[in-house]
Fold this sequence. Notes:
Elements: H1 7-31, H2 41-59, H3 68-82, H4 85-105, H5 109-126, H6 135-147, H7 153-174, H8 176-181, H9 186-202, H10 226-230, E1 242-249, H11 255-265, E2 266-274, E3 277-284, H12 287-297, E4 299-307, H13 308-313, E5 326-332, H14 335-343, E6 347-350, H15 359-369, E7 373-377, H16 384-396, E8 400-404, H17 409-417, H18 425-437, E9 440-446, E10 451-453, E11 456-458, E12 463-467, E13 470-475, H19 478-490, E14 496-501, H20 509-520, E15 525-530, E16 538-542
Parallel strand pairs: 5-6, 5-7, 7-8, 14-15
Antiparallel strand pairs: 1-3, 1-4, 2-3, 9-12, 9-16, 10-11, 12-13, 14-16
Helix pairs in contact: 1-2, 1-3, 1-9, 1-16, 2-3, 2-4, 3-4, 4-5, 5-6, 6-7, 6-9, 7-9, 11-12, 15-16, 17-18, 19-20
Amino acid sequence: MLETLDATAVRTWCRLALSALGQAREEIDALNVYPVPDGDTGTNLYLTVEAAAAAVEQCFEDGAAPALAGAVKAMAKGALLGARGNSGVILAQLLRGTAEVLAAQGGEPPALRRALARGSEAAYQAVADPVEGTLLTVARAAAEAAGRTCGPLAEVTATAHEAARAALLRTPEQLDVLARAGVVDAGGRGLVAVLGALADAVAGQQPMGPVAFGEDLPVAAPARSEGACAAEPERLPGHPAFEVIYLLDAPDRALPALRARLAELGDSLVVGGGDGLWNVHVHVDDAGAAVEAGVVAGRPHRIRITHFAEAAARSGVATEHRPTERAVLSVVAGAGLAELCRAAGAAVLAADPDAPPSSAELAEAVRRSGAHEVIVLLNDPELRAGAGAAAEQLREEGVRIAVLPTRSPVQGLAALAVHEAGRRFDEDVVAMTSAAGATRYAELAVAEGESWTMAGVCQAGDVLGLIDGDVAVIGRGIAATGAEVLSRMLAAGGELVTLVLGEGAPADLADHLVAHARRQRPEVDTVVFAGGQESAPLLIGVE
């Protein structure tokens, strides 16, 4: 239990929030009926928090923890720069207000209570026409409840989280469109996840693994020209045709006129930021005029324009400029594994176990393939949320993409072995998914300290054998532990064993395990590859 919020706790909060939003992204997208039913609130909140978390991670790059002020300011600026959609800009402004107080007053309980109140106030101030029954209402309820506490940090955060959950359940009573749809507010649901992550961080919970910074999403279609925007746009019934969002370099004095002009043009106006940098969001029929208003106020950049009708229909944009070839992208760590994937015809995105690729990096790797159809092999369950966000953006660009749920490089290799570019896309995806699913996987890892596992208590230096993601064996040596893991896997059957040796694996490990497999199951074939991965001395696949 933390008594004071520090930079490390902020880092953990961001990681846990990103994980929580990744798990809830599709649920939140499905709740999205207000202000426009375009099904992207979960995605927008995920991408906003991903940017905040990545900015905080950069503060720790030299290995030393920064001061609290540095971490929260980085969080707020990252969220501002990466904010997506109405909900993302509001959340970014809430984080900015929270950060202002924590940076100035520290992380003691009284300061956190004031920070939550300031965050709520800043969020309301960012919205031109605040509406109750939304993220704003949930934020205010959390802040007010936290403000009534007098206890330690854990009480403040737990109370805020519980009050947010209760307020979320009341949102249909405050907003008719939610009541008619039978849902709670999507943005409020996302904020509950963020506040739950804060409570968990203060309670001492840690992320299960490295968080990847970065299944299908409608985030933002490519920007249209002013001429295209001037044409009579197709609309979702009862809503403006376009969402316009951009960053704006402008002095504070330019903001009142900008807000007034954008309010004339449309609705759902949110302007967040400060100190000369702003994130502007509005729904309009004339996207060109909304951008022009930014030009009058200052320098707009990172302009994104979404046509709601297209986003809702998932129709994407024209793809005649793209070749029709299919590509497979494999995310792997280790030079040997990368070469194996390339030899099988896949493009490779090199992964760092300590800094997994972001959704932006995944999307860019797919774009570099130049293919219209792309199958992505993640080979790591921690990358799934970020890949989902990347895939949604790419679909909006006209890419047909499938993210296969491979949880280990050995499953990725099994999928690549049955890939046939000449098959129909859906058939290829099914065949590769089936091959991956039929491959049981295991790996060895070395314990860094004492810990409870599914197999008992391990000590620093113990070799852990993980089968299908769970610790099944605790041993003292790599060869002996690897043999025990292999025996357990072969006891359930199998025809082919794949051994991928990591960097630093004992020289005789492969011979030892091949002989062990032959003694136990003479009919089983065994193949050995030098993977070069640093994260695990041995990967095992059994098909």
